[in-house]
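FAQ: What does a ligand-bound record look like?

Like this one, built around DGJ:
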Amino acid sequence: MLISVSPNAETFHLRNRFFSYIMTVMENGQMENLYFGKAVHERPSFAYLHEEGLHGMSAFNAPEPSRLCLSFARQEYPSYGTSDFRCPAFEIEQRNGSRISAFKFRSYEIIPGKPSLAPLPAATMESDAEGETLILKLADDATDMTLYLFYTIYADLPILTRSAKFELNGGTPVTLTRALSMSLDLPDMAYEMMTFTGAWGRERSVRTRKLDHGVQANFSMRGSSSAEMNPFFILKRPETTEHQGEALGFNIVYSGSHLGQVECTSDGTTRVLTGIHPDNFSWRLTPGESFQTPEAILGYSGDGLNGLSRAFHDLIRTRIVRGVWRDRPRPILLNNWEATGMNFDEALILKIAEKAKDVGVELFVLDDGWFGARNDEHAGLGDWVANTDKLPGGIKGLSEKIEAMGLKFGLWIEPEMVNKDSDLYRAHPDWILSAPNRFQSHGRFQYVLDFSRKEVVDQVHSQIAKVIREAKISYIKWDSNRYITECYSNGSAPEDQGKTFHKHILGIYDLYTRLTTEFPEILFESCSSGGARYDLGMLCFAPQTWTSDNTDGYERQRIQYGTSYGYPLSSIGAHVSAVPNHQTGRLVPLSTRANVAYFGTFGYELDLNRLSADEIEKVKDQVKFMKANRELIHRGDFYRLISPFEGNETGWIVVGKDKKKALAGFYQCLNNANAGWLRFRLAGLDPNRKYRVALRVDVDPRYLAPFIPGLDRLLATLNQSAELYGDELMYAGLPLNRMLFVIQGCDFTSLLIELEAIE
Ligand code: DGJ
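The answer part, i.e. the structure of the complex:
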């Protein structure tokens, strides 16, 4: 039993072996949070955790002589204006102009498993035995509304999911002007907030700040989860490290504008809110209608930040990602974007694909430029018909030729967008999101189709489904290359414009649902100018995300390291690209480019015909290596070891669930003269097992002449493998001679350490 209810049916204790979440009904009928943290024993009453006291300048929300001041109560889903002066979880504008509401506990229900939130995507369960859901029913009599609060606890994951649903039963219409997915009040503020911020090309940088009085927010108002502030954030204790201590993680299963907000009061408490950003949101309800919020995901770790990441990785890998590709080995792909841009024809594509086949690549992906008048960024989006000047046999013909080579074929699309120079726009100029009589802001010369309108989704769906039905397509890269401006739907009434942002996101989910249902065998990879829409909503449909357009093997260490806090390696699209790197101009050795990309879903983003014979041999070896290790990498437990945000080095390791195999990566930015040894301390291994340890280092042949004293001995050790216990590797660490980086002949070097248990 995961959910206990007190004898008076007013206190609820959700508990698994990781955490306890306890709440109760307050004297005014509203819900109070008593505890969220490491699992504690069940007991008949937790009333002692209720704190109430005398506070000057307070107002009280229960009949005299009550001292219930909501400003000091830790509430489950608070409103504003009835003695709580903090930011609320919801707000309802009523016909009489009032925004006051008070939802009082009425009843509860505990159900096995987890109800669907469709059409919103949400975390799943494969069987009802995996967890339980508590549904609290609250009512606000003055508005004739019901509020349902959903809490799902998994038996075997340190994860709690939450959402809220508002129903207007009768009376007069109301408007929700704020409806967040969850609120969590914590009794102190001794936390640091970690956010994952950035921009195009430098997504998910790790930022850590101490909480302070007032509001600190992590948000997007871009109509997308955004490259600027990913919806995932963490509250950790100051003493928490990667390997120990308490941390709470928050995310939402949503791809639109979001708000994650942490408010600390001057008396030292913390309120965490997350959900749809309230700006530009208002949802009018008429009697009989309801509004369901997206799902919030709360993770708890008593084992440091790596423990928190593993909680989210396990949930995402097994219960967010779904479909046949959840558990299949991910194909090694080659994408032509950095090789050709939009400037290609069938002969060139076939030449690139042939070489890819030669080295062992499994999937060829044709990127942007194959359709309509798409020869540059100004035209073509919206017309999903192959350009037969470039591809005489269309996508059907090309895909058949690629398949005949023994490769699978993948295709790029950007279904939510349109260029004005397109047949679609010329036929339906009112189908873009744009406000009447206002300038229409453009981005990459394109406009956002109004997916809040079903007829628009229908039209795009029919075009894209036709291409897929006719051709042999195994993979789709779904791109989205601008944020939303002038979010106004020309298909909605003025009083419903506050729904447009959210309805647009529901339209995207609708198209994804239709395509993934009709084509269940296709592997989808989401993309948004790189990683500008890396979120749990997308991962419900697309198991992989193109992590960043920045493919520089050095900067990618930071991007993938930051991404790994909230998202598993099996979702991190990572490719080896050409040098000089297109985004940074940097020359990172081929070995390091691959050593970074292995820790994701691996592929190439270049024309292999331009590599030397020696490089091609290395690429063949890389492909073979990834094929042999991808199951370990995509299903194992990942541990961050050394942060690239803190110094010259990066380190990480992935360890199989059974701890029999592991693969560690070590990366050094700049080489140093006369540098000594370093100890690379690993994690996650079985301390009592002995492992065979083998280094994988790409030595520059110029160093094979032994002009460095002792080099011959060092090189000889590279071919030997050590046998060491897990405890030695984790606590004493693996001694690495820094000459291992010098003999790679440049900066931005790296090495891999393969571990295999031998007893
Ligand atoms: C942005 C993506 O991130 C790139 O990989 C590529 O697909 C381009 N769009 C194509 O326009």
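Follow-up question: can I read anything off the structure? Yes, for example: The longest strand covers residues 131-140.
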